[in-house]
Amino acid sequence: MPRERKRLLPTDDLRHRYDHALVTAAEYPTDYIPEHAAEVRFILAEAAGEIECCLCDMAKYQNVEQCPRCQATSHVNCLDLLRNHERRHGRPLAYGCPECGVLWRAPEERAALAAECNDRRRRTTIAPRTAYRYRHDEISGRLICTFVRPSTGRICGESYYIHQQVRRHHERDHEERTVACDCGLGSAAPGDGQPDLSSCFCPVCGGEFLCRHAAAAHCWDQHRDQHWPPTCQFCQTKFDKYLDLVVHLSSHHQNFEAA
Fold first, then answer.
1. Adjacent-strand bridge partners of 74
2. How confident is the model at residue 177, as a pLDDT?
3. How would you class 200 by CB atoms within 10 Å of its CB: exposed for 0-12, middle for 13-18, buried for 19 or more?
4. Cβ neighbour number for residue 186 with a 10 Å cutoff
5. Bond before 229 cis per omega within 30 degrees
6. pTM (2 decimals)?
7. CA pair distance 115, 105, nearest whole angstrom
8. With contact defined as beta carbons under 8 Å apart, do 186 and 214 qualify?
9. In the chain, alpha helices (H)
10. How confident is the model at residue 189 (pLDDT cuts 50, 70, 90)?
11. CB 54 within 8 A of CB 74
12. Which branch of life, at top level (predicted)?
């Protein structure tokens, strides 16, 4: 019986959306995969036409990858969304067909083209000292974020198809840029839907701010060169972002005040 389909959403439990052979294959040695993977067919959006994606069940104007064994097609962005979502939830997937589980490798000409940008740094627009790092994965042709998460000591590992996607990912998940938050002040990151009007303190210098987002943005701008990674002075827990540290202090060390 065919699996029930529904639109692919980041908040879904997506474990029913792919062949679980990809979970097992993610643990294979890197030198095993090239010899046992099939070359995936890459179809540009212009030629893809109304091809339906096996993940979102929609035909959209997007680049498509087609399995050489079962002929199932998936949007490049949908496959990246699936793999990044599962990686964040502790279930990394090998690059392959979500429908039948066969391992894939990128066409050699595409891999060679993408390899030209291997291990370069790209600057963001926030400041000259802020850079994001990535590496080129020869198997999938994707760009892999190599930001090391202080909380785990492991690289992020999320994969994207183009540089702009990697940059946006880094700005969203690894930086604390000044954007508007729910309380209307300059903040470090988009709000979580709950306005926070209570004042809080900078965990480094003790300066007082009107909201946790503003405190985190201040830390990112003023303290990250000398005080990275964000670390709780009370329990020595390391965090990936200053906003996480500020929230931790308010919830676990409520008596924290300016020195």
1. 65
2. 61
3. buried
4. 17
5. yes
6. 0.68
7. 14
8. yes
9. 21-25, 33-36, 45-48, 76-88, 108-115, 163-173, 212-222, 242-252
10. very low
11. yes
12. Eukaryota
